[in-house]
Specification:
This protein has about 270 residues and is an all-alpha fold. The protein folds into 2 domains: about 220 residues, Up-down Bundle (Four Helix Bundle (Hemerythrin (Met), subunit A)), CATH 1.20.120.180; about 30 residues, no CATH class. Helix 4 packs antiparallel against helix 7 and helix 8 packs antiparallel against helix 9. Belongs to the PA28 family.
Amino acid sequence: MDATLAARLEDFHKKATAAGEEVVFKDFPAKIYCGYQTSHKISPYHPNHAYTFTDTTVYPPPQAESTGSKKRKLDDSMSATSDASDTQSARYPQLVRANTHLPQLHTILKRECEELIVLTDKIKLWISLTMPNFPMGDFTHAVSAVTISEFKFRKVRSGTPLDLIHPLTHATEVVGELARSQDSAINLRDSARNDYLARAKICSKLIKYPHVEDYALALKEHDDTQFYLTRQHLSDLRNLYAVLTDLIHKNIAKIKSPKGNGGFGLY
């Protein structure tokens, strides 16, 4: 390898290590203790906001309010000459207003999920760069092709005592926990889309059947549930930070100085 390129690569490794250690010892602990105070009265997550922003009123079409009868007649004549199927949505042009408070909560949650993904990426890179290379045929090289649960299952069936099965202290297992946390964050980030789709279905029913009071109640309950879930999701993210911080700190010595022998302490 070219000397200049090797120097750049070494510098990249040092920066990745510094960034990973900063996340582990600074950013993660700060996230545990600097979360949103959901119980504070001025917090957007305070329970008093649950039913405040749900409007179950079915309003007349905005176009009908702003245009005259002559314009409406012209629109009617134009729609009569068109047989496109997409005009069927105009059969129920009434309006149910969106909840103006929930988008703010979804925005906060999405930002927190994205930050978790970025921070865990830094740790994954750092740990991956510290993992040693093993020769072909090494015991751990074969084990790396299976999951931890499969490895434990085989060892138990072979008669190996449970106390000889190494706990979750391998660097590969830490990386696996980080990846699972990222998957959880991605799923939580998508909760806003699911909320809007489910709410739109209830609103469409409310417009079509305004005389059915249960649809109005369903809309209120939906918003209340989403309000609760957004608060719970923030708590879930905080718990993820706590679990990951504890796991990494307990195994920081093995992560920084991985062993290179063939014992059970291998990563």
